[in-house]
Amino acid sequence: MLSVSYAPSEEVESDDSTSSGLHPAIHADHIPRPASAAESPIHAIATPKPTLLFAIASDDVEQVRTVLESGEAGPNDPVGPQSALAFTLTNDRLARKNDIVKVLLAYGADPSALRNPALNPTARAEGNMCPPLETTLEGMDPATRYFVARADNAHTRQTSRLIYRSFFRPLTRVRYDVVGQDWALEQLFRVLSMHSQRLAVAPIVVLLCGPSGHGKSLLARKFGSLLEVPTHTVNMTTLRSTHDIWQSHSMSPYEEPSSYTLAEFLLANEGKRCVVVLDEIEKTEDQKALWSLLMPWELGRCSLGAGARHIDVHNVIWLGTSNIGHELVFEHHQNRPEQDKPLTREEYLQLMESLRPRVSECLGASLLSRVTTVLPFVPFTLEEKKAIAAESVYALGGDGARQLSPQEVEALVMRALPHYVPGEGARSLHRAISNQLVDGL
User: Fold this and answer.
1) Phi, psi for 172 (deg, rounded to 5)
2) Taking Cα atoms as reference points, which of 390, 360, 353, 395 lies closest to residue 375?
3) Which residue, 223, 273, 298, 344, is most buried by CB atoms nearer than 10 A?
4) CA nearest to 210, candidates 426, 40, 37
5) How would you label 129-144 residue by residue, b for 16+ Cβ within 10 Å and e otherwise?
6) How far is 440 from 407, CA to CA, in rounded Å?
7) What is the pLDDT of residue 41?
8) Does pLDDT of 53 surpass 70?
9) Which residue has the higher pLDDT, 348 or 159?
10) SS (H, E, C) 192-257
């Protein structure tokens, strides 16, 4: 059979604005021969590449990610008579089932396959044909249910299209690491989409603001790793002078160990896409320490000292995290007529508009005028709290927790919810689950 290979048919924008079309390449060693032609003996058999079925059945989350990342298999490829998603959900031998489901969804697994009898063979129950309980929302634990429902939401798919063809496309996977904050993610994707469609001199500067424990630092931490670009995190509480910011070493335990200062990091990545996280930016002891950010945030160029040459930083993505406006966020939430329902886009934009002046008061209008967008992080809904608590069960309980049924996980979650503290966010649920697990020892 004639073998024809193609370059990817989808054009994905890169920082170098390169793209490729369809280029069929015919391999000479695959040209068909007459049936009577003598075949050369095969002396070596190539080791087969891991399949998606093998990766899932091995209960190996990273292997599943590797197979999907390589393109060797797609998240919607059938695994035997089932979709990959249905196969995972119905496999009782998997201890990392929740994590594998999240990886499949992050790479584009379609939850509608769970409603397709051809991809999710039905089981008989009292004479009626119905899908296996594990593949229905009612039969899932709160975390799996939340992420499957999120992936199945039309708004989620619409938002993903904003950066579908840009360098930032991998960021759509952050939805399966961060719970909640749908409108913040949509607004972020809109900003990134606009930036990728034009030749911008100024870099992207985003401030993530709001209550503690609502995902700001987690999003900032995931940003660089999803894009596979270098990240440098500055603990802004340690700064004492303007000079300190450039001499700051990366403080994040989640990044590759590095001896670089921020100045050395920017020099090493000059002109390249990279991420700088300014954690707790409002807690800088002397606000004058922030003045050195004015030129790089406006012109995309940075001077590290008197007489020193300018460094090109226009491709740097600057992410600041802050608790500025946390009381405003809670006040806005309490004034909503239906607090249990998710915010509408109009409500979120109104909150954004109210928050920006508050940030200006704290950081100064001169600095804020150079910020691309300020994104408020809002209180969690009930379903989001349940998902966070269930994730905590798996994270803290280890192998023992992974043997629990969805109903047992839900029971732990429901006992934790009364201990939720809005001002502490996810941390209070994490602590409540931890206390339950300790008491159960």
Assistant:
1) -60, -25
2) 353
3) 223
4) 426
5) eebbebbbeebbbbbb
6) 17
7) 44
8) yes
9) 348
10) HHHHHCCCCCCCEEEEEECCCCCCHHHHHHHHHHHHCCCEEEEEHHHCCCHHHHHCCECCCCCCCC
* Separation CA 51–CA 412 (nearest Å): 36
DSSP state letter for 344: P
Distance (Å) of CA 52 to CA 65, 82, 106, 172, 173: 9, 12, 15, 21, 19
pTM > 0.85: no
Residue 63: HSE in the Cβ half-sphere, 13 Å Cα cutoff: 13
Could you tell me if 281 and 245 are in contact, meaning their C-beta atoms sit under 8 angstroms apart?
Answer: no
Over range 247-275, report the average pLDDT.
Answer: 85
Which helix H or strand E contains 355, and what residues bound it? helix 345-363
Across 99-115, b (16+ Cβ under 10 Å) vs e yields: bbbbbbbbbebbbebbe
Residues 6 or more apart in contact with residue 198 via CB below 8 angstroms: none
Going by C-alpha positions, the residue among 399, 414, 401 that lies closest to residue 440 is 401
Among all chains, which residue has been given the structure tokens 């607090």? 339
425: left (phi over 0), alpha (psi -120 to 50) or beta: left
Q: Is the pLDDT of residue 16 over 60?
A: no
**Ramachandran quadrant class, 161 (left: phi over 0; alpha: psi -120 to 50; beta: rest):** alpha
Q: Which residues contact 262 (CB under 8 A, 6 or more apart)?
A: 232, 234, 245, 246, 247, 248, 249, 250, 276
State both tokens at 417.
Answer: 């919810």
> What are 353-388's pLDDT values in tens digits?
999 999 999 999 999 999 999 999 999 999 999 999
**Phi/psi at 261 (5° precision):** -80, 170
Q: Please, are residues 293 and 266 in contact by the beta-carbon 8 Å criterion?
A: no
| Residue-level length of the chain | 441
Cβ atoms of residues 380 and 425 within 8 Å:
yes
CA distance 77 to 86: 11
Q: pLDDT confidence of 50, banded at 50, 70, 90?
A: low
pLDDT digits (tens, 9 = 90+) for 385-412: 999 999 999 999 988 888 899 999 999 9
